[in-house]
Amino acid sequence: MFTIRKLMVFLVVALLGGAFCRAAEKAAPAKVVKPPAAAAACTRRTAWIELGFFPPVQFPCENTEINGFRFAAIYTYNKAINGLDIGLLCDSGNANGLQIAVANRTAGIMNGLSLGLINVAEEEMNGVQIGGFVNQAGSDSLDNAGARYTTSYGWQCGFINCADSIFRGFQLGMVNISNTIFKGLQLGFINLSSPPSDVFADFQSEKFKAEKKKRSCVQIGFLNFNPNGVFPVTLLINF
Predict the structure, then answer these.
(1) What is the arithmetic mean of pLDDT over 21-49?
(2) Do residues 225 and 210 lie in contact, with contact meaning Cβ atoms separated by under 8 Å?
């Protein structure tokens, strides 16, 4: 039968046992905690191969520059990729080589060939973008304004092609748009070549302001819009 005396004995034993356990923990040497494999991988600056599903489930980690091959099962980001980039959603700081994905995004400079439904080079594109839906080169923002506007060279082929950097080359699509300075040929159903917004006019050099007034774009399409062309709006051809 459980009595008050037995309860008191039980509590004393429990308290003594807890005290002995705490004393043993303090006397034992401290354990060395090793960083997980993912954290250790983040110390790598370069790698030949990248395999990933989505950050942080990728090896090696986002801060690694890949020189070789990268596969993104879902979405993968690296600060740079040089080589072959394949996957569902491929994202990088800079890219040099071949990109094949449903969507390719480069936050910095893209040099090479991009194949996808959506191809975006936010700072600069030098090469070819072939997209089923949208191609984007450059960014019309304060960080990219005035004398600091980047220059992209190459081709854009897709349903909608948009150039927000200074673009020298060729656009082929249903809708072709240039929002800065376009030097080359636009071939499509609707073509638009307009100078950059005056919002950033205070940041633009005199040379840049003179350049954006020049006629430099040839347009062939059903509707052509060009404020600096022979006519602001034409059918079939404008320059």
Answers:
(1) 55
(2) no
